[in-house]
Structures are given as C-alpha cells and as structure tokens.
Amino acid sequence: MAAELIPPALRSRLQPLQLLAKRTRAMGLGLHPSHSRGAGLEFSQYRAYEPGDDLRQVDWKLYARSDRFFVREAERESPLTVWLLVDASASMAQVDQARPQWSRLDAGKTLAACIAELALRQGDRFGMIALRDDGLQLLPAGSGARHRNRLWLALHALTAHGRFPQSPALTPAWERTAAGELVVIFSDCFDDAMVALAERLAAARREVIVVQLLTAEERDFPYHHGHRFRDPETGEERPGDGKAMRIEFLQRFTQALQALDARLDAAGIAHARYVLDEPLERPLQHVFGRHNKA
Amino acid sequence: MSVSLLLPGALAALAVLVLPVLLHLARRDQQQPLDFAALRWLPGKVQPRNRLRLEDLPLLLLRLLLLTLLVLWLAQPVMYGATDRRPYVAVMPGVSAATVTQQHFLKDVRMHWLAVGLPAWDAALPSGVQPIDSLLRQLDAELPAEAPLIVLATPQFDGADAQLPVLSHRVDWRIVTDTAPVPPPAQRMPAPRLYIMVDAAHQAQSRYLAAAAQAWQVPATQTATTATLPANTQAVVVWLSSAALPSQAMAWVRDGGTLLLTQSHPLPGTPLPLWVADDGVVLLEASAQGQGRLLRWTRPLQPAVMPQLLEADFPQHLRAALQAPTPAPVRADARTHQPQWGGRSTPQPPQALQPWLALLLALLFLSERWLATRQRAKALQ
Known about the structure:
The structure holds 2 protein chains of 2 kinds.
Chain A: H1 8-13, E1 32-38, E2 42-48, H2 60-66, E3 70-78, E4 81-87, E5 95-96, E6 99-103, H3 104-122, E7 125-131, E8 137-142, H4 145-157, H5 171-176, E9 182-187, H6 192-203, E10 207-214, H7 216-220, E11 226-230, E12 237-241, H8 242-266, E13 270-275, H9 281-293
Parallel strand pairs in A: 4-7, 4-9, 9-10, 10-13
Antiparallel strand pairs in A: 1-3, 2-3, 5-6, 7-8, 11-12
Helix pairs in contact in A: 3-4
Chain B: E1 2-5, H1 18-24, E2 33-35, H2 57-74, E3 77-80, E4 88-91, H3 97-102, E5 110-113, H4 132-142, E6 149-153, E7 156-158, E8 166-167, E9 171-175, E10 194-198, H5 206-216, E11 221-223, E12 236-240, H6 247-254, E13 258-261, E14 272-276, E15 282-289, E16 292-297, H7 314-322, E17 331-333, E18 340-341, E19 351-352, H8 354-380
Parallel strand pairs in B: 4-5, 4-6, 6-9, 8-18, 10-11, 10-12, 12-13, 13-16
Antiparallel strand pairs in B: 1-3, 3-19, 7-17, 14-15, 15-16
Helix pairs in contact in B: 2-8, 5-7
C-alpha cells in the first residue's frame, strides 16, 4: 500500500462524480434534494393551511387572490452523511499472485478514500466503520479536511485479520447510522452476515451501496496444478487440482454471484463489482455515474 | 556397421537417472497453502488427479537425455565397420599425372602417393627414396578387407626390401610404362688414402697398415712426423709416434679430418668402440673432435698382442672402421616384385564415437541451461 491512498490519475477521474442519495435527512443546506419540506430557498408546493402552521409561512398574496390560506413549502437541501463500511476480515487480505502488493483491502481503502474525497468536495459528512471480529473500528462522521486526514490515518492503520463479526458486535453500525444516510460497504460479500447486514440496513431506510471486491484469481481461476487451498478465515484447507476443479468452480462461483446480485436487487441495494485488475474508477462510475445522469 | 561399447560396465551409472526424476517430483507436502477466500465454492470431492506429479516435463526429459548420453559417453561407444570401403589407388613416385588419368578405375576411388604418410595424390610428393614395400604392408593393414587395392607401379622402383610383401589384399598391380627419374645407384666409396706419419721407434708397426692400403689398391704415403699434413680432409692420417700431436694436426682434425693415434695417446671424452674383436676386446675406439674424429689403437700394432693384424680380413675390418657401410640395394623390378596374396588380414580398429557424443553433450547442456534459466527468468518477472 503506497503512502498515497488515491493515485493522482485516479484523482483526476473523480472530477465528474457526485455523491447523490435518493433520500436525505433534512439538516442544513447542501447539495442533496430533501423530501422533508419546510422553510427554504427552493419552492416546492403549496398546501392547505393546517392549524399549528407558522403564520409566517402562509402566502398572503395567494390568500388575497383565492380567499383561502395556503402554506408555501420549500424543498430544503441538506448535507449527506456517508458511512464507509470496510470489511477487515482476513479474507480481505487476499491478493493475486500476479500482483502481490495489491490486496482486496487495499482496493477497498482506496475506494473508501475516493468516496470521502467526493464527500469532502461536496461538503458532506463522512465516517468509517471497519468490521472485524476483534472489535469494530469506528471513525465518527464529520466533515472537513482535518476529518479527511483522520480517515486516512485510520485507513492506513487498518489491517485485515480475523473473521467477520457476528451480529451482536455489529450494533454500532446500527446505532451510528441513521435513516436516509448513505452507507457504502466494501467487502468480498462471501460472508452471509455481511449481506444480511446490508439487507437490514437497507430495510431500515439506509441508502446502501455494496461494492463487492473480487480477486482476478477468483474470476479466472488460473490454477493448473495441485494446490492446497486454504480459507484465510476458518483455516480450512482443501487440496485440489486446479485444472480439474476449474470449470465446476467457475460455474458455482458465477451462480453464487448471480444469486448475490438478485438478493441485493431484491433489497433495493445498489451494487458494483470490482476485480483487482480493473481500473479503480469503474465501480465508482457504476454506482455514482448513473445517479449523476438521472 | 555396428555400434558397441568398450566399457559396458559404465552403464551401471544409469542409476543416476533417478536424481533428476526425484528433483522434478512435485513435493506436494511442502507446498505453501494458498489463501483462497472463495473456498466454499470449490468442488470438494475432486482430489488431485495423480499424486505423483512431475513438474516441468520438457526440462526433465532433456536432463534425462543429457545424463543418458553422459553415461553412454563414459561407456566409450565405438562403431565397427564404418571404415572407408572405396577402392584405394596407390601411385608410386615417378608415375606421371597423364598416365594416371589414362587408367580406368571404378567411379569412386581414393588416390594417394605411395610415400611416407600416404599423402593425397593432389598433394606434393615427399622427396627421397620411399620404402615401397613397407608402405604396401602398412596399406594392407590399414585398409578394410573389402576395399580393393590398386597400385600403379613403375617398371623399376627404389624402396624394395629383402622380402617380397605378402598381403591379405589381392593387389591390382598395374605396371605403367612410365620410367621414374630414378637416381643412379649408390656407388661404393673409394677406399681412403692413408698418410702414415711414423717415427723411427714405430717403423716396424707401419708395415701392417701399408699392407692394408695395398690391399685396398690405394697405396699409402709414408712420411716423417714432421711432414706437412695433406690438404684433403678425406684422407686418413695415421700418427705412429709417442710424441705429442702438433697443434696444426688437431686443427686439421677439427676441420673434418680423421686421425689414427697409437695407444699412448688417450682420447678426450668418452670414446666409442669402433672395432670389437671376436673375443670382445675393443681394438679401435673413436671420439668426435669438431667436424672430424680421432681414432686410437688400444694396443700396439704387433702381432704378439694383436693377432688380428695377421688375419686375411684385416684390410676389410680397417676399412669398415674408417668408412660408413654401403647401403643395401633397394632397386627392384616391378614384374618380379609383385606383392603376393595370402597374408593374414588385420582387423580394422573401430571408430570412436566419443568426440561426437561430447559435441552432442555440449549442445544438450547449453539447451538445458537455457531452458532452466528461461523458466526461472519467467518466474522472476
């Protein structure tokens, strides 16, 4: 992992991207359209006066024309809060043999730093939660360049080991994130608990985006000889001949990915897939570029 | 044509072939486990196809081949029957090129001079008299029995020896009409002229030498010891005096003269016996001095102590001691000197294959190094 989290070439490609969420919480002024209405700059709609409404919000000119009380409502822009959920279990340390310096976790760190950069540019708040069974690492949401530095410090210190935490340990992820906030998950999604967490967060009205990180070896399975495959989290070993297992593995793995896609789609979770030998901006464009056009 | 091994016991070294096979056995137990998080989607029941797996098969095969050839090289392979069976035409010195081209041969023949070293017919002919009979015997031994031998002989030739060659080949003995420019036969050298320088005390002894010179039909010249030496160094001076030699006599000897001393003058250096009597007594000894030589009688020339003086062959013995012997006659007539058939054929030595194998081994070794380092360089990239 280089000292620079975001390579310069990648930084220039971040320029056209914007963090946009469907739902945001009303709080101050910002880029993000809010469905909560109230006093603001941007006119939204008129609605009939109800007892208890502030008299100052009544449109008196309209009252003069129509002899009815209407309350003028504006859509308020509010800052978004982005939560970066980084899986830091041992499986994230897996690398390709062709590029042993570039692990799944490194890619996740860089992508998380990119999103934080986007949030910083837009004045949004961002926080980070690293998920590991020996305790979650939490960086509270904040904004500003100093907070970005804090995030980078936390990301640099992050190493992948241990297993994925079980559900009682995931409570901070619940408590800290609130409805309407953007939650971006970086994980290999091999652990069912991770997908279940994403589903529950989405069901609880968090805007969830899953970036699945895969190694090129998982995609291609380029093994030709006998190997001892070891699960880095459970330690389980399975000897096998690469050539003999390749077709069946790829078939089963593709099916698993399709099942995961279907499950995430069903939960209304935006998702992108990043393989370690692809350009880094691809998952970002896939997730945020689509919203940009809309 | 057959191949065999001179040291078949060396094939036991083929056991070394086990080594590369052991080196190339994939040691599964020592393999590093491979982190693979998507383990649950690996098919579980598939075992490695074969437990004994050889890594890098082409390199292994190359190494096995290399070792096999190395062992074969140690076993000293030879090839029998790989000799040249083309007809062999031996041309005697003196046969002209025009005569050779007129001869009818089978298509593919080897042509060589019948001379020392058997040079090719295109090459220059060594000068001097060639030992023809000896060369014929050598050719007969070196040629395989199947190769016909054709000899182009001049009607007369020099180089015969005392025995008619008896060969295993039936020689096609073609006497061509060319007459070789043969040198005249060696003539017997004339007997040396004796200059006997004698003083009064040895006057009696000089008569035997004078008689010998008379027998040679070259009369001796008898002078006093004070007389001048002859200008001709071919002459032999006999010094019959106890007096010391004058210095000009020694100078004359160094210029190439031959001087015969009495027993009272010791010879410098270690003299060589020149005439040994039948009873083993050295009568005449010699010592080189410059270009000439000094001779010395080992006893006085008196019949009482040297009875050979009275023998009839004293002049011959003396002449042989003073002169080199005449060479034996070497000239022969080709019609009567045709080699006879009936000798035992000589088995041909097998051709050694070791140099070729060594070349092949070097090539194989280079390619093995290339293959091995290429794979390592690939792994390093």
